[in-house]
């Protein structure tokens, strides 16, 4: 499947259809807030087994994808260096990971389903959650159709963190209690991912005129603003969830 996958057709399809990510995003917003309204006077569903299976499936997909993309990334780092690992566009057509890069882009539509579980279980839906899902979907499809420089790191890090995150969700949904420190560590890893993203965007500004690092201002601007907004929101989430609440508990 990996070897026979036609990445040129996939990239061509995405170039023609990437704007459909906006349609998915609008439908997503209408759906989640519509369901939330319908659930207002109803009791939440437990959904432990479906959620565990859902999270396990996404964890396994992320793990396989991370393995394949890291294999390519390590090869580039050891043979061509860090700059090429950021700048090169071979990531999108490499025989080892091209299939998983395309599936990664498509999976951002599937991941919108995370929010349905939150609403049906009547858990708190925060702005960061649905904002992150919408913008990541649009950015990922745009990134793929542009074969954007820096995309290799974005995809590889995202798959790696999602492997850990969805594994955590799987264990929690199965009914096991886990240390609060694990949740904190996952949030810290997400913050680190966003900080790396901002740093890569700054590097691309310096390198963009090089022949081997072609990228446009719209590409860099989109990436930088997205990563910066995520960095601020995740830091705020960490502060409110783990620092402020901990201080309140100690005060009580």
Automatic annotation (TrEMBL):
- InterPro entries assigned: ELO_CS, ELO_fam
Entry keyword annotation includes Cell membrane: no
Q: How does it sit in the membrane?
A: Multi-pass membrane protein
What EC number(s) would the UniProt record show? Answer: 2.3.1.199
Q: Which GO terms describe its biological process?
A: fatty acid elongation, monounsaturated fatty acid; fatty acid elongation, polyunsaturated fatty acid; fatty acid elongation, saturated fatty acid; positive regulation of cold-induced thermogenesis; sphingolipid biosynthetic process; very long-chain fatty acid biosynthetic process
**Keyword Lipid metabolism included in the entry's annotation:** yes
- The transmembrane residues are 22-39, 51-70, 127-144, 150-169, 181-208, 220-239
Where does the record place it? Membrane
**Residues forming coiled coils:** none
Enzyme class comes to: transferase
**Molecular function GO terms recorded:** fatty acid elongase activity
| Keywords linked to the UniProt accession | Fatty acid biosynthesis, Fatty acid metabolism, Lipid biosynthesis, Lipid metabolism, Membrane, Transferase, Transmembrane, Transmembrane helix
Which reactions are catalysed by this chain? a very-long-chain acyl-CoA + malonyl-CoA + H(+) = a very-long-chain 3-oxoacyl-CoA + CO2 + CoA
Q: What is a single cellular component term in the Gene Ontology annotation?
A: endoplasmic reticulum membrane
**Record-stated family:** Belongs to the ELO family.
PANTHER family registered for this protein in UniProt: ELONGATION OF VERY LONG CHAIN FATTY ACIDS PROTEIN 3, FATTY ACID ACYL TRANSFERASE-RELATED
Q: What is this protein called?
A: Elongation of very long chain fatty acids protein
| Native species | Coturnix japonica (Japanese quail)
Tell me the name of the encoding gene. ELOVL3
């Amino acid at each position: 499947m990996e070897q026979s996958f036609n990445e040129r057709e996939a990239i061509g399809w995405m170039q023609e259809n990437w704007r459909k990510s906006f349609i998915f995003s609008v439908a997503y917003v209408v759906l989640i807030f519509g369901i939330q309204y319908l659930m207002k006077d109803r009791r939440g569903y437990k959904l432990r087994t479906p959620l565990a299976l859902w999270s396990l499936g996404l964890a396994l997909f992320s793990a396989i994808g991370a393995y394949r993309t890291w294999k390519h990334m390590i090869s580039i780092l050891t043979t061509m260096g860090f700059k090429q690992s950021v700048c090169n566009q071979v990531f999108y057509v490499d025989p080892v990971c091209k299939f998983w890069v395309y599936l990664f882009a498509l999976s951002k539509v599937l991941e919108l389903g995370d929010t349905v579980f939150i609403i049906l279980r009547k858990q708190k839906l925060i702005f960061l959650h649905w904002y992150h899902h919408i913008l990541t979907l649009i950015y990922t499809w745009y990134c793929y159709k542009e074969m954007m420089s820096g995309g290799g790191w974005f995809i590889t890090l995202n798959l790696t963190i999602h492997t850990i995150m969805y594994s955590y969700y799987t264990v929690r949904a199965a009914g096991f209690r886990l240390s609060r420190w694990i949740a904190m560590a996952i949030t810290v890893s997400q913050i680190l991912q966003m900080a790396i993203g901002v740093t890569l965007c700054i590097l691309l500004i310096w390198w963009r005129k090089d022949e081997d690092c072609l990228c446009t201002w719209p590409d860099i601007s989109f990436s930088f603003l997205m990563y910066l907004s995520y960095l601020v929101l995740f830091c705020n989430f960490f502060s409110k969830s783990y620092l402020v609440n901990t201080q309140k508990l100690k005060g009580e």
